[in-house]
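Try this one yourself first.
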């Protein structure tokens, strides 16, 4: 299979402003994430306004965190040479680990402001997080970026827009790692929904879904890196930058799960 779709969906006449599939998927991601969070908030018997109040903190945390993560985790040397590049977001560059940190910051701020338990908010956002982690990779696929390693497997995909410097007939087949991660995000969402039901929904132990999300997502992220082209890590390192950044949150998730199981507290306050 050859994937050579133009990443620009359409251009707004008169403004010369391009609308990309990635941007549309990002917007859909945010809308669906809000719907899932609103479902959790309403199920707890709280006002829909509480869900809406999370929109801007989550958006700012995700975007700023993703941009800062890309700059400081993957391109810090270039940033030192061109500091203003940090603000040239139209040139691309977002990192999922940075987005996760930004979202945690937004949750912490809302928990402090609303005087609500941090893990209660985190639990209720895990469904949105799992869906978002998957959908953003679908956007990467439409952009022909974050590609997999070269493979001879029958399900390999040719990305001529990524390997643009090569003659068309020599463009190699690569693992469609973006689609694999997209599927992993949907699988994690499904597992979280099942766990939520088995754990008693609003009677589930507080922090259980957070721990499960951290373990499932960062385990998947660690494993998926073996399929992807290395990015941001020296070739002499066995692990990629994405894998190194996944170890700490994965370990934290395991520790949190142990703590939750030892001292369970119901989600509904």
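Now uncover the answer:
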């Amino acid at each position: 299979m050859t994937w050579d779709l133009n990443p620009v969906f359409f251009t707004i006449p008169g403004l010369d402003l391009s609308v990309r599939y990635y941007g549309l998927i990002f917007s859909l991601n945010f809308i669906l994430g809000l719907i899932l969070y609103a479902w959790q908030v309403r199920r707890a018997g709280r006002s829909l306004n509480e869900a809406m109040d999370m929109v801007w903190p989550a958006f700012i945390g995700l975007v700023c965190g993703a941009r800062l993560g890309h700059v400081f985790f993957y391109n810090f040397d270039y940033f030192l040479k061109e500091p203003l590049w940090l603000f040239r977001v139209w040139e691309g560059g977002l990192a999922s680990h940075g987005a996760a940190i930004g979202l945690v910051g937004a949750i912490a701020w809302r928990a402090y402001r609303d005087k609500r338990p941090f893990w209660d908010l985190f639990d209720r956002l895990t469904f949105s997080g799992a869906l978002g982690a998957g959908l953003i990779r679908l956007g990467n696929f439409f952009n022909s970026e974050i590609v997999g390693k070269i493979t001879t497997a029958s399900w390999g995909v040719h990305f001529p827009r990524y390997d643009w410097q090569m003659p068309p007939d020599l463009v190699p087949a690569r693992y469609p790692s973006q689609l694999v991660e997209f599927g992993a995000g949907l699988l994690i969402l499904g597992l979280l929904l099942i766990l939520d039901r088995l754990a008693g929904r609003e009677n589930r132990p507080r922090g259980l879904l957070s721990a499960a999300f951290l373990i499932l997502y960062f385990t998947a992220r660690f494993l998926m890196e073996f399929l992807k082209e290395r990015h941001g890590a020296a070739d002499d390192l066995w692990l990629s930058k994405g894998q190194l950044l996944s170890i700490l949150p994965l370990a934290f998730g395991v520790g949190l799960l142990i703590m939750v199981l030892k001292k369970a507290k119901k989600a509904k306050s």
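Discussion: The first strand starts at residue 8 and ends at 12. The mean pLDDT is 89.
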